[in-house]
Amino acid sequence: MNLNQLELFCEVARLKSFSKAAKLLHITQPAVSLQIQNLEEYYGAKLFERTAQGVILTSAGRVVYEYARRLLEIHQQMERELDRVFGVEKDELVIGASSIIGNHALPCSIWAFQEKYPQVKLKVEVGNTKLIIQKVIEQQVELGLVEGSTELPGQKGLVTKKIATDEVVVIVPNKGFWAQKEEITIKELMKERFIVREKGSGVREALERALENQGIKLSELNVVSEMSSLEGIKAAVEAGFAISICCRQGVQKDIRRGTLRAIPIKELPIQIDYYLLYMKNKFLKPVAKRFIRFIAPETLEFC
């Protein structure tokens, strides 16, 4: 049990809806359901009942709700006092984020964090995975959020915390031949015009490692362009210029709009992890520690 779970529980009870609480807290409904389930298992009691009008608290749920509200109020009072002591109201937090996270995951998380701590100024610097890792090591940013491998030659004292897992998929235009395609083979992938991400990209490295495990080099693909802009890549794919790869979460909006499709490589499933980074021996400001607690797996939400 943690305070995030209690806060989520109270919002569900107040709104009488899992979906409304999910929308308000910028997380998915399955994530809400999972956290409530974990809370019910922790207390050994059912906390909600479903009705035609929504969900209502059980007798056990009402007890948990009353005490949870008090705990959260006391915790908020404590944080306000700490803000006064540490001067957090004037604080700034600089975060480095790789392109997928910076453009698709972090915006929603930032909105949620700033709704909770409106006095904090957040600054986000976006780059590829290797660049962000380097910025964290050189202390140009206090925290980093990246996808893919976090290993750099000679790096020391870098703390890495896994916060999510995603799937690397091939992105194709939602028209013509591709509109009915459900998967692509490695042989087919090698023949198609292909746009690759720049060196230092976590997605590119994930693809290179997966291909090497099959005895294939990236140079054996029909690479027609190398691009660092995900939006530029998506525009080129949508126009039918070539195909490419991306984390599935990076193209969710495009899939919903019907402009792109995401298909797996038949013999080559590729997973990629998302990490939170900071230096072990660096003093972290209170606001940075709060953000680390806030960006837990159950709260990371893609826009």
Automatic annotation (TrEMBL):
CDD domains, alphabetized: PBP2_CysL_like (cd08420)
Q: What Pfam families does the annotation carry?
A: HTH_1, LysR_substrate
User: Keywords assigned by UniProt?
Assistant: DNA-binding, Transcription, Transcription regulation
Instruction: List the residue ranges forming a coiled coil, or say none.
Output: none
**What superkingdom heads the lineage?**
Bacteria
Please give the Gene Ontology molecular function terms for this protein: DNA-binding transcription factor activity; transcription cis-regulatory region binding
Keyword Transcription regulation: yes or no? Answer: yes
Q: Does the keyword Membrane apply?
A: no
- Family matches, as PANTHER family: HTH-TYPE TRANSCRIPTIONAL REGULATOR, HTH-TYPE TRANSCRIPTIONAL REGULATOR CYSL
- Similarity comment: family membership: Belongs to the LysR transcriptional regulatory family.
Q: What is this protein called?
A: Transcriptional regulator, LysR family
